[in-house]
Amino acid sequence: MTRTDWTARTELAQDSLWSLYGAPAPQLLNNTYPVDENETFNYWWLAHAMDIAVDRWERSGDPSHLGAAVEIFENVLTRNEGRLFNEYFDDMLWLGLALERLSRAPGHERYLEPAREIWQHCLDDGWNDTMGGGIAWRKPQRFYKNTPANGPFIILGARLASRLGADDPYLVWARRTMSWLQEHLVRDDGTVEDGVNREDDGSVDTDWRYTYNYGLFIGACVELFSHDHDERWLDRAELSARRAIELLAVDGVFPETGGGDVGLFKGIFYRYLELLLALRPAADLVAFVRLGTDALWENACSGDVLRAGDDWRSPAADPTSMSTQLSAIMATEMRARIDARELADTPG
């Protein structure tokens, strides 16, 4: 049986982002295909576009992809009136995560400082004692705390601790925030809730179940494991990964629909699941990744273009969101990493 070349597929998927959604400055990347006449600036989507450019560089070693990540970051700053910060703590933390990864590349160490500035800003402005602590979702609503803000704060804090050392407070706050998250939004069965106190009434949004919340908790567990090597973090991550699949997957696919912000959710799950699988390649979770990405490519690839729809079991229908394409690229990159590891481990 011929082995599918997933590295070639990642290149095609990455190229398809620019062929379908690329636009002249200052837009750089359109939010929709076909293009909407009301295209707007979307800070957090562009942070993930930076992240996939770094993925491409890590896989290929081609420095031009670092240039793409830098170009996207400069576009974010330009369109955000020269400011690093905005009103949404989760938006800023996504950018911080992309910057920290970019800063690992030779010659790009300067991008660690804005990542650190974002983390510190989110701590100073976002953490408060409402609901016992936690990072708020956004500045006009500081009483509302959710996984999309606290998960990236933990991951970025743990990564900064690895880079900057134990004398700084990053790991202390990552652990404190993880304790808060587990107390308020993670259930004993692995369920990860979205948020609490949105209406300033102390209620948990149990009807909002999204894949990226599970991905973020998985990522936070993996990053804390990297510091203390306590296998219980990986146990918790596996439990939540399987819970997400049990609750939210159909036929091996997460059928989240609607495009827009939702389009990014499943890609974030795949990104952080892959970090877990690099440490514990559980057969059922690997099979899930393969089933979903196989469905994606069966239905979204036409000739030399990958155009992803929201539900990977079906071809894309107009219009499609750039966010959805980013998820497809993340999943394809993760599939390529999984297959590369398996091939490396195969005798002969």
Q: How would you explain this protein's 3D organization?
A:
There is one protein chain. By secondary structure, the protein is mainly alpha-helical. The chain has a domain at 12-27 and 249-342. It is 59% helix and 5% strand. The protein is built from twelve helices and seven strands. The strands form three sheets. It has a three-stranded antiparallel sheet with strand order 2-3-4. A hairpin with a 2-residue loop joins strand 5 (301-302) and strand 6 (305-306). The longest helix has 24 residues, at 322-345. The two termini are 16 Å apart. The model has no long low-confidence stretch (mean pLDDT 96).
Condensed summary:
The chain is mostly helical.
Task: For the largest sheet, list the strands in their spatial order.
Answer: 2-3-4
Strand content: 5-15%
Low-confidence stretches: none
Spatial separation of the terminal alpha carbons: 16 Å
Query: What structural class do you assign from the helix and strand content?
Result: mainly alpha
Please summarize the sheet with the most strands: 3 strands, antiparallel
Sum up the overall morphology in one term: globular
Averaged pLDDT = 96
- Determine Rg (CA atoms, Å): 19 Å
Compute the number of strand runs. 7
Percent range of helical residues: 55-70%
Q: Order of helices and strands, N to C?
A: HEHHHHEEHHEHHHHEEEH
Number of helices: 12
